[in-house]
Amino acid sequence: MMEDRKLNERESLELIAQMIRNTRRNLDAGGGNMFLLWGYTGVVVTLGVWAALYFTNCTACLWGFWALPVVGWLLSWWFGRRWRKQQGAKDYTDRVVGQVWQMIGIACCGVAVFATLYQAYGLILPLCAMLVSLGSLLTGIIIRYTLFSGLPSLGFAWSLVLVFQVVSGGVSSATLLVFAVIVLLSLVIPGHVLNRRARREVIPNALERNRYV
């Protein structure tokens, strides 16, 4: 009985490790692209709104941020169909990561809706930056990527500072630029890391598996 119990423990640990490896490979096969899609969309939209606000000094330009979810979701739907074909079968950790980002998306929409109802528009960017950083941070913890835990942690701390700055002093053009930097730290750089690992790990692993087929 003791030997069986030890064997089951080892099997359980190996199963957990295998699920983490599968989730990493699935993220490498398409998740990095999704991080880059949303990251670059966020940066481009933010810089576009910042430029419009800078040259026109018209606060109505801030409504341009609604282009971020619209463009992001359309591009995710369009490109996601192809990227999903590159991914393997999904297991428990894949579903956990997916549910984390679903909740992050819902929470960001909630922030935008309630900030509009209470006319606290200045809090939208800091709180959404905090949520996105938290999503990347949790993803890094789940799949055990150190960089995913490091850079998003910095983004989360910076977004927390941004919340207090907005509450005490209001929104400025610098707020938009800081938001763009946080998106770079939490989505763009981690996305490039995932794609780099895809080229370095996924392809050799596939070749190794083919040797035994």
Describe this structure in words.
By secondary structure, the chain is mainly alpha-helical. It has six helices and no strands. α1 (2-56) runs antiparallel to α6. The two termini are 35 Å apart.
Key terms for this structure?
mainly alpha; disordered N terminus; disordered C terminus
Output the radius of gyration. Answer: 20 Å
Number of strands: 0
Q: What is the quaternary state of this protein? A: single chain
Task: State the share of residues found in helices, binned by percent.
Answer: over 70%
* Mean pLDDT reading: 77
**Strand pairing plus helix content: what structural class?**
mainly alpha
List the secondary-structure elements in sequence, H or E: HHHHHH
Low-confidence stretches: 1-7, 203-213
Please give the largest β-sheet.
Answer: none
**What percent of residues are in strands?**
under 5%
Approximate shape: globular
Distance between the termini: 35 Å
Number of helices: 6
